[in-house]
Amino acid sequence: MKKTLLITGGAGFIGSHVVRQFVTNYPDYFIVNIDKLTYAGNLENLKDLEDAENYRFEKIDIVSPAEIDSVFNRYKVDGVIHLAAESHVDRSIANPLDFVFTNVVGTVNLLNACLKNWKSNFQGRLFYHISTDEVYGSLDQGGYFIESTPYDPKSPYSASKASSDHFIRAYSNTYKLPVIISNCSNNYGPNQFPEKLIPLAINNIKNNKHIPIYGKGENIRDWLYVIDHARAIDLIFHRGTSGETYNIGGNNEWQNIDLIRLLCKVMDKKLDKAEGLSAKLITYVKDRAGHDLRYAIDSGKLRQELHWEPSVTFEQGLELTVDWYLNNEEWIKNITTGEYEKYYQTQYANR
Ligand code: NAD
Ligand code: DAU
After folding, report:
1. CA 87–ligand 1 middle distance (angstroms)
2. What are the extents of the domains in the chain?
3. Among 98, 209, 253, 256, which residue has the most ligand 2 atoms within 8 Å of its CB, making it the best to mutate?
4. pLDDT value at position 1?
């Protein structure tokens, strides 16, 4: 019998890889992708799946309970993998309320719909939330985030994701809704909107523009190739235990400045530039307000219990990513006009 899964935010960066992972690997599942198509949502990301028989797209705003109801009325939903969110920290500093609406209210609307539609029988149902390591706050030089690290969000974005995680656990405790949460570190790879560090730097180097580095470039992130995140989500959805949390990370920490220097070397080679030319574009700019120093995930639970391992090294993933952006000029051209230009001017003008 077919299972119907709702994937929210499937037209975004990570969501598009998760949709592809499920549509391709599970022909017996019917995948409904619900997405509002904000600036970050792009159906080009899923062009290859348009005609797949087990896939459907629905333009839905999760902030509207009526729009969510219309989906639950039309499909017999068995599971939800929830990725729809406002996801960029800098935008959350400029417009916190957008993050409250989508990330908090949107999540509670989805939880209510699941409760209403599943309450007679929770058997075989699951609400799976794709959350972030940023809910744990910021680390100094030592230590790692584990699943029981207390929440200590420090940006409007991470506060909104922490709040949504709390609501999900509250629905599990109060109404016994079957839920799983995974908290992942920084993703990179094809289809990432060029407001985030790696695609922004690739795009700027290609166009001979400055690469803005916040503060001294000393902040540390733990980078994971997006397809390895999608593989982890598949594993956790199928073999994870209801009520549990799983941390996902690349065990791959980089100071921003070292990462950008490595990227510059890769770009010099790919663009046939003299070594060192791309790095000349590095420009230190005013720091992000409240900038978290370091994130680092201990993904031991996922590795030991579900035997997940990343499939590519960082060097391989970075090269695949650069190749993808250089081979998909149209994709980047289509999204770096209009809204992007306005955002870029506002975000970087006074730095
Ligand atoms: P993204 O910004 O690329 O995509 C978000 C998607 O959600 C877009 O397609 C957008 O149109 C959709 N969306 C936004 N508001 C909506 C609404 N009101 N209704 C319906 N759809 C809406 O984000 P991403 O980087 O792919 O992140 C996906 C999820 O993974 C987010 O929940 C994010 O918090 C989480 N996450 C991201 C990372 C990362 O490094 N990017 C790491 C860990 C966790
Ligand atoms: O850790 C997971 C999180 O990773 C996700 O939950 C978020 O959705 C995702 O956006 C990402 O958040 P970051 O803030 O870490 O990612 P970003 O790419 O914006 O920034 C990475 C680092 O690079 C961070 O220390 C800020 C810095 N930076 C970023 C930009 C855009 C710069 O130095 N210059 C820039 O122009």
Report:
1. 5
2. 3-192+224-252+293-312
3. 256
4. 52
